[in-house]
Amino acid sequence: QVQLTESGGGSVQAGGSLTLSCEASRDYRNYCMGWFRQAPGKAREGLANIAIDGSTRYEESAKGRFTISRADNRTTLYLQMNNLKPEDTGIYYCATDPTVRICFENNYDGFGIRGQGTQVTVSS
Predict the structure, then answer these.
(1) 29 Cβ partners below 8 Å, 6+ apart?
(2) DSSP 54
């Protein structure tokens, strides 16, 4: 089973940027990959996903500010986050699943594998 390790979290001021990375233990070319977050006291929230064909989908909170991408090595996933806001504070997780339709259906609850998460704190 593939394992995921996130990095790149930290503390930034509002308006700042961060790039999160997710390292997979194996080639994920046949997997749906995505990012979601969980803020204190709030439900888990899907952000973006990238399908095996390279197509991407974004949830409303991520549109225009976040960019999901993957490296050519097929083991590293990124989430570029710009114009960060205090409400973006939370633990960010990358996730994956071999079920391809999870990406096309934006079914973040369907991801069967996720990493340990990386903390992002945005101060006003």
Answers:
(1) 52, 74
(2) S
**pLDDT of amino acid 2:** 86
Residue 100: half-sphere exposure toward Cβ, Cα within 13 Å: 7
Q: Which amino acid is at 16?
A: G
94: three-class secondary structure by DSSP: strand
Q: Give residues with Cβ within 8 angstroms of 106, minimum separation 6.
A: 46, 49, 57, 59
Q: Which tokens in the block code for residue 67?
A: 């960019």
Q: Is 110 helix (H, G, I), strand (E, B) or coil?
A: helix
Which whole-number Å values give the CA distances from 64 to 53, 67, 79, 81, in the listed order? 21, 8, 13, 10
The answer, yes or no, to whether residue 58 has pLDDT greater than 90, is yes
Q: What whole-number distance in Å separates Cα of residue 33 and Cα of residue 103?
A: 7
Q: How confident is the model at residue 19 (pLDDT cuts 50, 70, 90)?
A: very high
